[in-house]
Write a structure and sequence with these properties.
Belongs to the RnpA family. This protein has 3 helices and 4 strands. With 125 residues, the chain is of the alpha+beta class. A 4-stranded mixed sheet has the order 1-2-4-3, sandwiched between helices. The longest helix is centred in the last third of the chain and has 22 residues.
Length: 125
């Protein structure tokens, strides 16, 4: 399970990460990463733990499907939170095809998206 200290909760945090962060698109998801110390987000610091937020809209499916997708993504992200730089913020936006994707495919896509976002964020500095 994803610990409370690693969750994004405020809509303002989601908005800043999506607007100012590095964007990486995959067939079933879009990942936005805002590294710590970014001028666009003065509240991020290297001392804070990495934070993760999920956006699963109605285009993904009904309430049961959306909640299932959220649980699957939270489980995958809990295992990968250590790969994120300290103080960074990550938002994963689910796309409509995510509900039917097998967990192994979701894990591969999430790994690829996070790795690419981290490398792009490092180059941007």
């Amino acid at each position: 399970m994803l610990k409370a200290e690693h969750r994004l909760r405020r809509s303002a945090d989601f908005r800043v990460v999506v607007r100012r962060g590095v964007r990486v698109g995959r067939p079933t998801m879009v990942v936005h990463l805002l590294p710590a110390g970014e001028p666009a987000a003065p509240d991020t610091s290297d001392a804070a733990p990495a934070s993760v937020g999920l956006v699963v809209g109605r285009t993904v499916g009904g309430a049961v499907v959306r909640n299932t997708v959220r649980r699957r993504l939270r489980h995958l992200l809990a295992d990968r939170i250590a790969r994120l730089p300290a103080g960074s913020k990550l938002v994963v936006r689910a796309l409509p095809g995510i509900a039917g994707a097998p967990s192994s495919a979701l894990a591969r896509e999430l790994d690829a998206a996070v790795d690419r976002a981290v490398s792009r964020a490092e180059r941007r500095r």
